[in-house]
Amino acid sequence: AGIVSVALAFVLGLNVAGLWPRFANPFAEKTTDRSQPVLLKSIQDLSRFVAASGNFEVVVDVQTNRQFVPDIIFNQRTLFVAAGSVDAYVDFASLSEGALVVDEANKRVEVTLPAPQLEKPSIDSNRSYVFAEQRGIVNRIGDLFGGDPNRQQQLYQLAEAKIAEAARASELTHRAEENTEKMLRGMLMSLGYSSVSITFVQP
Questions:
Q1: Are 168 and 117 in contact (CB under 8 A)?
Q2: Residue 191 CB neighbour total at 10 angstroms
């Protein structure tokens, strides 16, 4: 007993002092990243002025079932909370000839711009998540064999469509007009023009 006590004390002393050898777990989980290098496909020059950005959130409630089949047998209902943003921009690249009329004598300038457009919604995956999900017996069995790999993509596409519709119904383009006019008016008046007229027309 005395020998065992001394041996244990010796082992504990080495462990506390950091002298006891440590052996790696041969069954430890290991992650290997074999991704290929990022390839630059193209570079584009942008001539857009992003004048406003709207943040949106929508709860997508989608249910797939079959008539006359109880939900406990076949049913899949998903509540998906999606958060995203939509930019409103003015495309200066599409300015037509005569869009800028300058009267140096009277320090007057007239600008004709295309009406603001809405960019495609950008879904924030870090703030989007499945809130709840109900599945029937058949659906649960299907999940064991891989389920529907396009299910998540369908949820994102539906969320994009709903956010895009909400953006069109909002005052986002009107706010973009105000911000664009404020930016141009301030810039042109700082150049010495006392009268600045800005008009937006539909393309």
A1: no
A2: 9
- As given in the structure block, the two tokens for residue 30 are 């290991």
Tens digits of per-residue pLDDT, 24-81?
A: 566 667 778 888 887 877 677 668 899 999 999 999 998 777 777 777 777 788 899 9
Phi, psi of 188, deg, nearest 5 = -70, -35
Is 38:53 a contact under the CB 8 Å cutoff? no
Task: Please answer whether residues 92 and 183 qualify as being in contact, where contact means their C-beta atoms are separated by less than 8 angstroms.
Answer: no
Q: Are 198 and 184 in contact (CB under 8 A)?
A: yes
Which string of DSSP letters, residue by residue, matches the chain? -HHHHHHHHHHHHHHHHT-S-----TT-------PPPP---------EEEEEEEEEEEEEEEEEE-TTS-TTTSEEEEEEEEEEEEEEEEEGGGPPTTSEEEETTTTEEEEEEEPPEEPPPEE-GGG-EEEEEEE-HHHHHHHHTT--TTHHHHHHHHHHHHHHHHHHHTTHHHHHHHHHHHHHHHHHHHTT-SEEEEEEE--
- By CB atoms closer than 10 A (0-12, 13-18, 19+), residue 142 is middle
Confidence class for position 123, pLDDT limits 50, 70, 90:
very high
Longest dimension (CA), the chain: 109
